[in-house]
Amino acid sequence: MIFKKSQSSFTTRNPERVQTLKKLSKKIGIQFSDFEFYHIAFVHSSYKNETPEIAEDNERLEFLGDSVLGLVAARYLFKKHPLASEGELSRIKSRIVSTPILNSISEKLSLSEFLLLGKGESKSQGKGRRKLSANLFESLIGAIYLDLGFETVEKFILKHLIEFAENPEKVESVRDYKTQLQEYSQKHFKVLPVYRMKGESGPDHAKVFRVSVKIRDEWEALGSGVSKKAAEQNAAKELFHRIKRES
């Protein structure tokens, strides 16, 4: 163990919180030693601000977890791709530790179920929710590292990250192109993309929707999908990549 909390910790005074964290332990397949680390990993700053008895939120663990995650990913890629250049390794690493990937892992583990969130916050706010979910995975990594050491946390990270590191199509499947296009458009064009339905075809049980997305009068792309949401994502993907190629 790298660091030990004092015996006056929140979890020693709140056995019901320990029972909740035991469910987390079972879900992720790791036997916790010091539950206080994991309690802190799921305390949002908004909850701390509203709860006087809470002394610490998860932001420091998130910072630590982000660094540990980066190291584990870098070590894995360095060994996996001995002929890759520094630039190639950096590009792969940035993809597999991106917010959409971490959010996907966090949602798969249902980490938000264990989050203590202030009354003024919401767990369902689009981009903010995805970032919050990704941050939980990082703070959990920080907790595991402090509690059980590098070897255990490395195994945990690779268990969930390796499928993305070895399967580019898997990375592509969780990328949120609507969010990426919106952020890029706001930054570079100072406007939001505009989506419009262009039509639909096929029988009711197998419809295909067509959507256009436009940024000013300069950029436009079409996308299709089995739902309006999928069509919008595909249109955003097409336009995002086109802008990147041609700008």
TrEMBL record:
Domain DRBM: 176-245
Active site per the UniProt annotation: 66, 138
Co-factor(s): Mg(2+)
Keywords linked to the UniProt accession: Cytoplasm, Endonuclease, Hydrolase, Magnesium, Metal-binding, mRNA processing, Nuclease, RNA-binding, rRNA processing, rRNA-binding, tRNA processing
A GO MF label: identical protein binding
InterPro entries found in the cross-reference section: dsRBD_dom, RNase_III, RNase_III_dom, RNase_III_sf
Matching SMART domains: DSRM, RIBOc
Catalytic activity: Endonucleolytic cleavage to 5'-phosphomonoester
Binding site for Mg(2+): 62, 135, 138
KW Cell wall biogenesis/degradation (keyword) present: no
SUPFAM superfamilies reported in the protein's UniProt record: dsRNA-binding domain-like, RNase III domain-like
EC top class named in words: hydrolase
EC number(s) stated in the UniProt entry for this protein: 3.1.26.3
Subcellular location: Cytoplasm
Lineage top rank: taxon: Bacteria
PANTHER family reported in the protein's UniProt record: RIBONUCLEASE 3, RIBONUCLEASE III
Protein's recorded name: Ribonuclease 3
Species this protein is from: Leptospira ellisii
Name of the encoding gene: rnc
